[in-house]
Design brief:
The protein is mainly beta and 217 residues long. It has an eight-stranded antiparallel β-barrel. Strand 2 and strand 3 form a beta hairpin.
């Protein structure tokens, strides 16, 4: 509730300060995100296990346009994912949390299986350039992502353990392409990158492909 409360307050502040300048649009969206993590072998360090995780996120975006080209955008969304893994394979895909320590894992049996359920609450603020070409729209964006992570471990015969981390604040960037159906409605597909190891590293990062249907007021 604290995360969503801060995000809602920021949204109201931005909207109330700028409604006189230009158009306001709302867009429900759905996205598919993917991350890649590499874990060295326990016995042979020269071998590696590559794990690619995907998750679906649902949310809503509000945008304010300025002079038909520039926009500010605020979005809030949530995703939830459950995975069954062996203890030896458990690794935080973002490299932010020592899961073995934080979740009090018993590592005496590396082949024991457990379930990890992660809920992510995500808020984003972006600056956008939207040049239009007839009915077509291009999009370029830069911004900041706030992410709160709630992770729960459950295994047979053991009391579940839950931790909450964040929110953290990291940069994101993206490009998009859209088609305008009417002066007040358009469809947009976007490819976005969340730079969770920046600074000092540009990579690794999380990739996101999202689609939205925008309605202007």
């Amino acid at each position: 509730m604290y995360f969503w409360g801060k995000t809602a307050l920021l949204a109201l502040t931005l909207l109330s300060a700028s409604t006189a300048m230009a158009g306001l649009s709302f867009a429900p969206y759905v996205s598919i995100k993917s991350t890649k993590s590499v874990t060295p072998g326990k016995k042979d360090q020269s071998t590696e296990t590559e794990v690619i995780k995907q998750r679906q996120e649902y949310g809503i975006r509000a945008s304010l346009s300025f002079w038909r080209l520039f926009k500010t955008q605020l979005s809030v969304g949530q995703s939830k994912q459950t995975n069954t893994q062996k203890v030896s394979q458990v690794k935080d895909e973002y490299g932010e949390i020592d899961l073995n320590s934080e979740l009090n894992m018993d590592t005496s049996d590396p082949d024991k299986e457990l379930r990890l359920t992660e809920t992510q609450n995500v808020g984003k603020f972006s600056l956008i350039i939207d040049p239009s070409f007839s009915i077509f729209i291009a999009r370029f964006k830069l911004g900041i992502t706030a992410r709160q992570r709630i992770i729960e471990k459950s295994e047979d015969g053991v009391e579940p353990v839950k931790i909450t981390e964040g929110p953290t604040y990291k940069p994101h960037s993206g490009v998009g392409f859209g088609i305008r159906f009417t002066p007040r409605m358009f469809f947009m597909a976007e490819y976005e990158v969340y730079h969770y190891m920046y600074p000092p590293k540009i990579e690794p990062f999380e990739r996101e492909l999202s689609v939205s249907y925008n309605i202007s007021m």
